[in-house]
């Protein structure tokens, strides 16, 4: 069409000079004319071979590398070993390496193929065919960061010379986040360090060093659930552009149940509600709202001792995947207060567990009880334990819990045996060292009091004039008086 192409050149004093052919004239026939004032020579035509693509400088913030070549041809990056790197150029630009996406825009011969190569000439990545405008896009793999790669254009059996380009530190390429594990696959420069960043650019969690293939994974803390985070690659003092990713609602992270307190530390999304559930997904216990740091404490019910539970967090109406399973140890039973009139102590634990009273030194006290299907039972505290501390343990599958909180037994009512008419006496059991006194139905003292021995045993003498009466007994320890014992009927005594 006789339209000017490129920039004119002025010949030197010897009539010599050179013209640089644009890369997109590859395979075309072009003409050259000489102009002198208003005079122009006839055109000399020349067939243009497949030229090497022309590359700009890599723009680090955008990781773009401008490339110009034969229209329709394909441009491809290569690593130092001439392996293909990434995809050939697309039709949205002119061959600039975008460090954020790894895309390189290439211009060349329409319909030609662009291929990346490593330094040994091996193809890297997938070749790209240039469109009818001679444009295409090659995507550089993240693990080519810091390397020098080549771009060649192929048209049929013809291949252009290689144009080399130095690849900057590219933004990391990210996989999909696994909401159950919080793991995020990352690809980047081999041996470099990848770091998770919050929305303010502050580091989150621990960095990871990529392997010799440029692969690795980051573990996202559950308190970044439903936020946008960034990932950068660091090498020395150089940092790549940030690749952002939206984090789904992750499974909460759980600690280990403390058998002494029964508490379970949970970490998740700040403000989310966390809930224990059993293996069938049924809720267990009471949910907890996590604090501003995404932390909270769940208390597994004592009835779940020996079970395996999980935790889910809910944000709005959306539940997360379940946490890793948590093994609940045999927890301390929950105990009420000792009834001073009956000497009974209510206990809660795992259904079917055996609960046992122990004294302050760990010796067994009284008779053990098996808890019912609701995990409830009642222990009878021996009267000899009056004014003493006791604890309760539960045993599940031969595993004994830690002792419950210490309970101080009040001064219990003494226990009267059946009166002996032959000896006019009645045996009594109570607190060792306590004073025991008979009394009538009006609460008046009857007969002489007795000090119980170290086993809490004693014998009261029945006055003969109490024959046929109904009497009770009370024990006194210091200034504390117990409730009255159950009444006993006094037989007719010998005169």
From TrEMBL:
Compositional bias annotation for Polar residues: 1-10, 17-27, 62-86, 467-483
Chain positions covered by the region annotation Disordered: 1-27, 62-102, 464-495
Protein's name according to its UniProt entry: Adhesin
């Amino acid at each position: 069409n006789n339209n000017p192409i490129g920039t004119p050149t002025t010949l030197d004093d010897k009539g010599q000079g050179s013209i640089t052919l644009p890369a997109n004239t590859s395979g075309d026939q072009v003409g050259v004319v000489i102009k002198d004032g208003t005079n122009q020579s006839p055109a000399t035509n020349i067939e243009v071979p497949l030229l090497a693509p022309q590359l700009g400088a890599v723009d680090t913030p955008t990781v773009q590398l401008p490339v110009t070549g034969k229209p329709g041809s394909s441009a491809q990056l290569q690593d130092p070993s001439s392996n293909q790197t990434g995809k050939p150029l697309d039709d949205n630009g002119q061959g600039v390496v975008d460090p954020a996406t790894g895309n390189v825009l290439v211009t060349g011969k329409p319909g030609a193929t662009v291929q990346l190569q490593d330094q040994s000439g091996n193809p890297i990545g997938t070749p790209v065919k240039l469109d009818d405008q001679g444009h295409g896009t090659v995507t550089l793999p993240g693990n080519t960061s810091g390397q020098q790669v080549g771009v060649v254009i192929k048209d049929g059996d013809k291949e252009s010379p290689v144009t080399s380009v130095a690849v900057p530190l590219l933004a990391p390429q990210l996989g999909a986040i696994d909401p159950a594990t919080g793991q995020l696959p990352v690809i980047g420069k081999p041996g470099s360090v990848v770091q998770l960043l919050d929305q303010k650019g502050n580091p989150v969690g621990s960095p990871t060093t990529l392997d010799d293939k440029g692969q690795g994974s980051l573990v996202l803390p559950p308190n970044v659930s439903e936020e946008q985070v960034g990932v950068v690659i660091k090498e020395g003092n150089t940092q790549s552009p940030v690749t952002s990713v939206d984090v789904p609602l992750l499974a909460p992270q759980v600690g280990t149940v403390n058998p002494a307190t029964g508490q379970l530390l949970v970490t998740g999304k700040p403000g989310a509600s966390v809930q224990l559930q059993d293996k069938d997904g049924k809720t267990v216990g009471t949910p907890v709202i996590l604090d501003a740091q995404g932390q909270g404490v769940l208390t597994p019910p004592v009835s779940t001792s020996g079970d395996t539970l999980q935790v889910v967090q809910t944000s709005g109406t959306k539940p997360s995947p379940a946490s890793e399973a948590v093994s609940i140890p045999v927890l301390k039973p929950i105990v009420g207060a000792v009834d001073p009139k009956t000497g009974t102590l209510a206990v809660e634990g795992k259904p079917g567990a055996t609960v046992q009273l122990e004294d302050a030194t760990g010796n067994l006290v009284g008779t053990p009880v098996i808890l019912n299907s609701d995990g409830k039972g009642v222990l009878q505290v021996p009267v000899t334990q009056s004014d003493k501390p006791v604890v309760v343990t539960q045993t599940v599958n031969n595993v004994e819990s830690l002792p419950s909180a210490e309970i101080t037994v009040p001064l219990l009512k003494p226990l009267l045996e059946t009166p002996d008419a032959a000896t006019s006496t009645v045996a009594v059991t109570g607190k060792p060292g306590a004073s025991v006194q008979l009394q009538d139905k009006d609460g008046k003292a009857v007969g002489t009091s007795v000090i119980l021995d170290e086993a809490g045993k004693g014998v009261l003498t029945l006055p003969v004039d109490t024959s046929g009466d109904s009497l009770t007994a009370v024990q006194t320890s210091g200034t504390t008086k117990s409730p009255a014992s159950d009444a006993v009927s006094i037989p007719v005594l010998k005169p």
